Amino acid sequence: MHSEPKQDKTTATRGARSSAGWRWRPPLLLYSYIANELLAPFFASFLILYCVFFLIRLIPLLEIVLSLRIGLADFIRLFAYIFPHMLLYIIPMACMAGVTVGFTRLTNDREILAFKACGVSLKQMLPPVVLITAAIACLTGFFAASLIPAGALGVKQLMFQLAKEKIDKGLKAKEFTETLGDIVLYVDKIDDQQVWHGVYVSDMRGRTQPLITVARSGHLEADMDRMQVTVILNDGTIHNNEGTDNQVIHFGRYQLRNSLQPPTQVGKENVTSLSRGAMSREQLLAAAAKLPPDSKASRMYLAEYHYRLILPVGCFILSLIGLPLGLQAAPGRRAVGLPLGLFIFVSYYITLTVCENISEAGVLPLVPGMWLPNVLFFLLTLYLLQRVYVERPLVPERITHPIQNLYDRLLLPACKRLIRLTIDAFTRTWSKKTETVTDNETDLLPIHADHATGLFHLPGCIHYHNPECQLKFNKAEVARQAGFAPCPLCAKRDEREPKEPQQC
């Protein structure tokens, strides 16, 4: 008797526990499907943009390749070092294009409509987009924070190594070498330890007369940090000849330092110089701390520091804008997502450049001025997402209607009138040319007549070359006297022809 209520109570308790222990599970199938639709065009866009930028950067690199005689392996290393900063532009463009193209395809194939019919709202489709764009933004931040400074240092070391190898290969015994620029070397003998014996040096740096140095032995040392090579000479003499004065100096050890100047210009950029773009964030802060806080140089270093943080956030914002742009497509309607996306992308970087320049000049406070483009475009992204969520056009009708009315009342009639005037002018010109040619030909060519129909045709008529027209007359009057009449097309022309005056 008492066991049944106890059993019911136990069952109810288990049901309450099961209901209390229930957790929401994300629709992984939906997320994976949307992610697949976004990542495929992202990688395709990335590959296309990478190839375009590769071709743009390849032409300036050929000068370095030819001058330093770089092999394939060193060329790949060089290109891998100087290319990471291009990824700051390639990755955001590819991510925005991937989101836009992916949702454009889903909209054109009515899959978005099917999702909504199944109860899947825009909020449920948003998490995979946010996760993918956030991951790509973090990747962009990694490139901006780590790979670009590391690449700049790698380029510097590689260039120094290649320039030194060029010197070592060009330095041969019993030959003059000019690989050190204004310093000409002659070595009588080089042993296995790369020690020179019998060294002759001609130094023309900043001089009109060479400074001659002769030494028993010497060798070459390299300083990679300063990009300098040092020629160390032992037991020799220096001969200085200036005008009529001669000076001879004996030395036990003498050093000639020379900075390497390999052809490191890629376009207008010196890849071996430690510019702001090649410095790490710690170096930027340290360089700014050494300068007065209100100086322009300090603001430039801090602007570069914030620029490294702004770009990843901008990549995330621009990628989210691709979602409402992609949803503007529809079957039978032109997809405007990509052109609008390109316009927004260019507008963002123009705004970022303008804000960076005025922040460096001190017109705006540095931090608010640098982050202003991200704030503005983030608000634009929220606005566009809200308009798409409530299924309204991106631009309100109160803005589009006046523009449409202005276009219908002024621009469209003006364009139609201009096109009509152009066509009329072309038609009149063509008609005059045709009439002139036809009138000239009428005087030279005979008139063809068809015996079966009793009609004759003037030169230029579409029936003039009819095989049935076997009869020929010199003039229209002669054809009329023979009983033939002009065809309807030639009747008007025949009326315009001047008649010969009849004799009394």
Describe this protein's structure.
The protein is flat. α2 packs parallel to α6 (122-170), α3 crosses α6 (122-170) and α8 (296-326) packs antiparallel against α9 (337-360). The protein is α+β, with helices and mostly antiparallel strands and 504 residues long. Residues 1-21, 262-269, 436-442 and 499-504 have low confidence and may be disordered. The protein contains 13 helices and twelve strands. The longest helix is centred in the N-terminal third of the chain and has 49 residues, at 122-170. The strands form three sheets. The chain has a six-stranded antiparallel sheet, with helices on one face. It has a four-stranded mixed sheet with strand order 11-9-10-12. It has helices spanning 3-20, 28-68, 72-82, 87-108, 111-117, 122-170, 281-289, 296-326, 337-360, 366-389, 397-444, 476-481, 488-496; strands spanning 176-180, 183-190, 196-203, 211-223, 228-242, 245-259, 265-266, 269-270, 447-450, 455-457, 471-473, 485-486. The chain has three domains: 28-161 and 283-389, no CATH class; 182-260, no CATH class; 445-496, no CATH class. A hairpin with a 2-residue loop joins β7 and β8 (269-270).
